[in-house]
Design goal:
By secondary structure, the protein is mainly α. The protein is built from six helices and no strands. It has a single domain, classed as lambda repressor-like DNA-binding domains (434 Repressor (Amino-terminal Domain), Orthogonal Bundle).
């Protein structure tokens, strides 16, 4: 089993060298962390999604989407996070280097 896990870790390490993959991976990691905080809050305070939604004044579906990693509306996410004692600290953008642009372009063409 350890060999299989090592292979997965090695594969991930190799994939993370690709800036396109790395950015998407890091974004998914942040989304997972946000979802975990919301779920942990609900469990700690014995709330279901509907109860949290009512408290925050959003729909239960919006809570469900966020907990599933659907982050189409940052304003709603920030509203939920503020209600449970968290905030989004920073959203940054930066221009890709020429090398990164080539890698992204190649990845997009493969899709």
């Amino acid at each position: 089993m350890k060999t299989h896990l090592t292979n997965v870790k090695d594969h991930l390490k190799e994939e993370l060298k690709d800036p396109y993959f790395r950015e998407l991976y890091e974004l998914d990691s942040v989304k997972t962390e946000i979802a975990k905080k919301i779920i942990e809050y609900r469990i700690k305070h014995n709330l279901n999604q509907s109860q949290l939604a009512k408290m925050v004044k959003v729909s239960q579906q919006q809570i469900s989407y966020i907990e599933e990693g659907d982050f189409s509306n940052f304003q709603t996410i920030q509203k939920v996070l503020l209600a449970i004692g968290y905030k989004i600290m920073r959203i940054q953008i930066g221009q890709l280097s020429a090398k990164e642009k080539r890698i992204v372009k190649n990845n997009l063409q493969q899709v």
